[in-house]
Task: structure prediction
Amino acid sequence: MLLIHCPYCEEDRSELEFRWAGEAHIARPENISAISDEEFAEFFFLRNNEKGLTYERWRHIHGCGRFFNAARDTISDKFLMTYKAGLPKQPVPASGEGETR
Amino acid sequence: MRKYSVFAIAREAMRAHKGWDAQWTSPEPRASYDVIIVGAGGHGLGAAYYLAKEHGITNIAVIEKGWLGGGNTGRNTTIIRSNYLYEESMDIYEHSLKLWEGLSQDLNYNTMYSPRGVMMLSHNVHDQQSFKRHINANRLYGIDNEWLTPEQAKDFVPVLDISKTARYPINGAALQRRGGTARHDAVAWGYARAASDRGVHIIQNCEVTGIRRGPNGEVQGVETSKGFIGAKKIGVSAAGHSSVVMEMAGVRVPLHSNPLQALVSEPLKPIFPCVVMSNTVHAYISQSDKGELVIGAGTDQYNSYSQTGGLQIITHTLDAICELFPIFRRVKMMRQWGGITDNTPDRSPIQGVTPVPGLFVNCGWGTGGFKATPGSANLFAHLIAKGEPHRLAAGLTLDRFRTGRLIDEAAAAAVAH
Amino acid sequence: MVDSGANVATRTLPLSGVHGGSSVVRLEAAAPAERINLRVRAEDVAALSAALGVDLPVKPKTSSSGNGRTALWIGPDEWLVFGDVRTGLVASAAKSGALHSATDVSHRNTAILVSGPGSAAAINTGCPQDLSLDAFPIGACSRTLFGKVEIVLLRTAEDAFRVEVWRSFSDYAFGLLSEGARDAAL
Amino acid sequence: MSGSSNSGAFRIKGAGRHTPARTARFTFDGKTYTALEGDTVASALLAHGVHLLGRSFKYHRPRGILTAGPEEPNALLDVSRDAARRQPNVRATVQEVFDGAKIASQNRWPSLKYDIGSFNDLLSPFFAAGFYYKTFMWPREAWHKLYEPIIRRAAGLGEAPKEGDPDHYASRYVHCDILIAGAGVAGLTAALSAAATGKKVILVDEQPEVGGALHYASTTIDGQDGYDWAQATAAKLKAMPNVTVLTRTTVFGYYNHGFLGLTERVTDHIALPGKDSPRERLWQVRAKKVILATGSIERHMVFANNDRPGIMLASAARSFLNHHGVAVGHSVGVYTAHDSAYEAAFDLKRAGVSIAAIVDSRSNPGEAVLSEARALGIDVLAGHSVKDTSGRLRISSMTVVRNGGANARKIKVDALIVSAGWTPSVHLFSQSRGKLRFDEANQRFLPDVYAQNSISVGACNGTDDLAELIDEAIAAGGGSVAVSGENRFEWTGGMIGAAEGAGPEHAVKAFVDFQHDVTAKDIRLAVREGMHSIEHIKRFTTNGMASDQGKLSNMHGLAIASEMLGKPIPQVGLTTFRAPYTPVTYGTLIAHSRGELFDPARKTPMHALEAAEGAEFEDVGNWRRAWYFPKRGEDMHAAVNRECKTVREVGGVFDASTLGKIEVVGPDAAAFLNLLYTNAWDTLKPGKSRYGIMTREDGFIYDDGVVGRLAEDRFHVTTTTGGAPRVLNHMEDYLQTEFPHLKVWLTSTTEQWAVIAVQGPKAREIIQPFVEGLDISNEAFPHMSVAECNVMGVPSRLFRMSFTGELGFEVNVPADFGPAVWKAIWERAQSLGACLYGTETMHVLRAEKGYIIVGQDTDGTVTPDDAGLNWAVSKKKTDFVGIRGLKRPDLVRDGRKQLVGLLTKDPKEVLEEGGQIVADPNQPKPMTMLGHVTSSYWSENLGRSIAIALVAGGRARMGETLYVPMADKTIAVEVTDMVFVDKEGGRING
Result:
């Protein structure tokens, strides 16, 4: 069960309160009715599915209700950061591999 | 290859089983092959086997970053059925089921295909409408699937609770008697042994890191952790990692990789005779030959390559199982694990040519990969050998996402397992 | 409008008369309340606060009370405001003259009052949030999950909470709270 | 030796920590025994000299007690309180005895002593690892019909319970700063240190009391006996407000982001549990930091016939003696490769037990233990091995040979204690996704790279020295405390893999995994057959896959494989440790989520009134909806026929409260709806409503419903019952992320309103007296009007709308007023001859009018045009969600499936919903199917059946005859339009 920092509630909350909402920073084309079939397929279906750093959306559906963005490593499932919807893609530090103790 | 039989076992028993050969060899890679298949799961190994057996192509390498059969082939709940709704699905899963029926004999390896029946529980009018739609379509297509009353369902699975006071009472069930289970490791190992025997190289612990392309964009081979290996044709069958491998050739595929969890109980004496699934309460269960209750849990909501998932997925599955079978509340979970499923937007697979000459793809099997293994492998072999899809797999192309001609089993019938 | 009369409807609360709990937790249905879901942009918060007579809190997870009304921060532009019946919340909000959305949800929600030393433990039987006083002090509030239903939780005292829940989920919430109350007493 | 006579002949006076006067009686396989309170089933039976407790999985070999803890692979029993409270596969070494317990052995028939299944042991040459992959293939059907049932019957261990579980379980979420797993020396010390910082600490241990290895070890801490120090420390910790100490609690899973699952056994050790007490409690902990102090587990020696009852780990024998006061035999042999077993021998010797010999496979045991052994007069055979044992149901002798020598001698023993050294318990570390490294010097895996905020201390971290361990634990806790300790002996030694005594590989059974009967030769066979990865070996032999999950066997198996392969251990690999650490009861994981609390059953405000009127209900999503209202003697068919007739002829009252409702408010409300629905909304005037269709970007119908405009800036949107939450989520998604510039807000009001639909010719007459301040005549309030008004003194919303084709109203009143208004309306309706009707009649009436139900007549692949609703797709709008998806090639091609009506040639024939449609019923299979029946009913109003279907090119097939082939007959149908009743639509105006 993930622990997710909601940038609106400014607090870490259990994954149970959230719903994943797909890849982030995919803007709906302004001129959507004019794009080609290929462009539509790209917009609607194609996703990066990164192994490693991914930018994704979550909704704090059982909390403040806001959609927001997150940067997460899909290998470790670690969140590198979360930030509010509408902000551009944020640069993140490289995902740590863990440490020896 | 030494033939397996009860007589061979008896002979070996007399001499402490010293005479068995390795089931497959572990050769160093050649400089190049006619065909390279990326991914030594059941689909990849099977495709190599059928290329050798049915298409006369034996200069093949199956390249695997881990160990063969170690991905979803060895991590699933081994359910086999073919009672899907759309013709494209029925074609491929029924082709697969027919191959399952003779697979042990074909491979000379007991894959333990056990047609103990797959029963899908109906809990409400909507389920009933959907199941009958499937049953009728299956019947007209020549696939067995029948409607049972609650009492008939209980006759088939005596531990089923069909009381009207249940939170979601059962109002009937669909049963495919030819559906069932098989032994997952045996499928990978059986294909590996049979392919290896026909000269196929299985290269384990070798990670593909790039796909080299020629002047016309055609494939030339793969860069790997063991160096460059040339190939005229490349078939990618890498399940949850298909996005990653296809990206190396610059081809994007519409996939999400999600953790899918499963669990087994401690071993119990036989109590559960078949496979039971319920879409309404989201659970499926069977009992392995060792006596473990094998329970498929849900998919975690986010994409991940971590092969782990949240405890809440497990608990939500178990509460559904125990609601259907209250006698199991005192049973214990012995082991839980996760795999990575590769899911397409319409939850149906992609198998076909790609924009890159010589590159073929087989992915997106989601939760249906195991049951499809022989059929998918067989048709993938055809695709690679002929350069175009077999009639039975013609609808599984990438192009459907452009045209909108989806095969949306999920939309038609809740979650497809 | 609540007066009895031949042709005047009477009110039936979803958890009417229900109570329960254990030696350390008391569970009871709250009195009927008037509630609005209020949506306001940041620049209009002051105007709405003034009109309602209660400061709309802008810090996450906080609430404020005034003039018999309580406002809970739900989201960055969302509040749940409640008060006694016939307090006229929608009309008050309208007087602000500022852009907003006030939707009457008086009957959508019902509330369960949880009190006693075992309250937090009872709620934690189904709520994944940290309800220690440090993390969830008096006056803290949050929309969250309770078992399989959504609730809005408000801490009204060190050992007292108000659980707001949609009416059709109230039986479930009360049932699970009862289980939690029983376990909290052990 | 003289033991307490009633609690067992092997009870040693003065030994152990139980009170002799406090006894409990239980039965084992029907025979009654007396135990002492605090005994485990294992210690209680051993006290009576009972060693034979079970049969193995495959060969049905007699098995005893190997361990004293949760790693036990052999002694799995069936424990019951009563018939319903029966638990299979319980570890005798964990289960505490309670008065009245009924305990039985498993996996044997007819009895534990004479088990027919043990015939398998004689056939074992045939049953080599993986033999089943090589045979049972002929004839084809024989696997499922013949061989598999035999294998299944032989396999499995315990019997599943036969009755539903009457016990209940609890669950709690909890947060802490530091969770400490394990309360041995390391865990307790870390807890003291952590507690001193004032942080919130949870200390967890799986045993009934804290102490871990201090239960048996000769350790002195702070000048006190170690066990006593542990109890005093626990008491001190429990008294601190920031510390929680949980015993009988197992950390079974270490998941993502500091989330851990714990299971607490609350009543399984109590004779008469209180009725409010849960059997077990699930703790779901979110910890900021985790200190793993999980200790280590002793390994057995791998040699021939090392599985006989009476053979057990040395540390287990010590626990039974020092904690429970039970000697494991009269004449005990020792076979070891590690110093620790010597201490067990010393303790036993001092308690008066004869030590036959210490057989040490090493030629150089630790000096300290050697001299102590000499001092106690114990015979030590260093550089020797046990090459075999004998004894049918219990060990009677061991055969000892000098390493490399030939002359074997038999030594009589009634118990043999063994130790091959200790395996650090890195399970939780590994579950947390930490990476292990191989400690070559000590042949063990240790924590290396941490993936979460955790730290391993003590034996699980490979820290053997007590002073170092204490320092490590204090540092991990972060506080400053002083603890000092001393062990009597420092231990050396240890081995993994087959011991000398494993003998020639083909001749003997030297068990690696006891429960699954995996022997050293099975692992060697796997390697020979090409299994070179430990995962392959594990799966091929099933080593480590039994219910103990390889706690004893994994390292041995790995070492044997490594030797066979000639590869160092890290290259062969280590299988991953998966949760749970020990098996966890489903009931605990589920906790309250059962019965009424399994899934909330949502009921409308009028539910109780409807039930009182005799309603049958159906499940629609989470909702319970009134399905039909049978009168005395009516079946569903009769009731629905009557309701259908009455609504069309007089009127009916229907509970429509479950429909989703969303309040859309703001100056841009119409603009927003324009983007979310295919229809145009800016043209809708306040006071009017309109049927809307929502598509997603792909152009397929997602939801539908009537939308009323209450004011310029306020809409009352309705959705389907099942679609309400996802439609709101879909709208919020677009509003927040694609159209955030729009000034509009959304609020769910589904449950704010009770909705009472009144339909039929007398609908207006029925509601008229209750409506205040509104003219509801056809002229003033025509079809698709909406208004705010008072109903019975309550501010309400009145819709003029119809899902039946009749004159109709939907009265929305605030939900708490629903029952009163419903009652009043129903009383009047009844007096006018109208009826109550449920969802089934609603379905029939709407089908008679050709109104679709999204989710039944459409399935996520249907466009508005397919559904004949193209009129609802605005041609003027330049944008709405779905506008582009709708134009894709496959969505505009000819021959798509379209909704049409079907009339059976035989009017009495009612089609099956889900029936498939073909043009030529005589074609061979697989047939070409044109579509399917989506809705089908008997229409009492028409005196015939009606149906709606999706048919390829359907609208171009009007009048065509098609066929619906069923299993027993073929039904001919004619394609028609979808409106079966009142094609002109006049009835809607009454």
